[in-house]
Specification:
Layout lengths: L8 H13 L12 E5 L4 H13 L4 E6 L7 H7 L4 E4 L9 H10 L1 H9 L9 H13 L8 E4 L12 E5 L1
Parallel strand pairs: 1-2, 1-4, 2-3
Antiparallel strand pairs: 4-5
Helix pairs in contact: 4-6
């Protein structure tokens, strides 16, 4: 069983300071009618999901891109929420998760080298494309007018790496 509690004022202050340092402005989401937040079950996506949901509870949707190797208590917790959805690759894609993940792990040395030269991009990893982004572009739910998909917090607000797309 996972321990959960309601967020408190002090929690929100910590979250606000954390995201402010990253250059995030929660007010940028105010105009969207639906906010889809990708959750993997890890620290970053969970923190982002909780913060956005606290600020916009009526229009936040938690989205997990199914990966049989990525399971956690946190994902189990979110899966019980009414505003949770999980997207899976089309069966016609014949996605082999093991092969995609192996290919991604094999690119770690290249990623470290690119990072040293300040040219790193997670686009070198095929897992992000095949398991996450490809399915956002195909799924009609995420193309609704005035919706936004948030897929991460690492690079700052509204960067192309963090937003699969917006529909304004």
């Amino acid at each position: 069983m996972i321990y959960t509690r309601d967020l408190e004022v002090d929690d929100i202050k910590v979250f606000n300071n954390y995201f402010k340092k990253l250059g995030f402005n929660i007010g940028n989401l105010k105009s969207y009618s639906k906010i889809y937040v990708l959750i993997s079950g890890g620290f970053d996506s969970t923190l982002l999901a909780e913060w956005i949901s606290y600020n916009y509870p009526e229009k936040t949707y938690f989205v997990n891109c199914y990966n049989p190797y990525e399971q956690s208590i946190v994902l189990h917790y979110y899966s019980k929420k009414n505003n949770f959805m999980q997207i899976k690759p089309n069966k016609n894609d014949h996605l082999n998760y093991g092969s995609v993940l192996k290919e991604s792990f094999m690119k770690l040395p290249q990623a470290f080298e690119l990072k040293k030269r300040k040219k790193y991009s997670k686009r070198i990893f095929p897992c992000c494309y095949h398991i996450k982004h490809k399915h956002f572009y195909k799924d009609k739910r995420f193309k609704e007018e005035n919706s936004v998909v948030i897929s991460g917090i690492k690079r700052g607000w509204f960067s192309k790496e963090n937003m699969a797309f917006t529909n304004e």
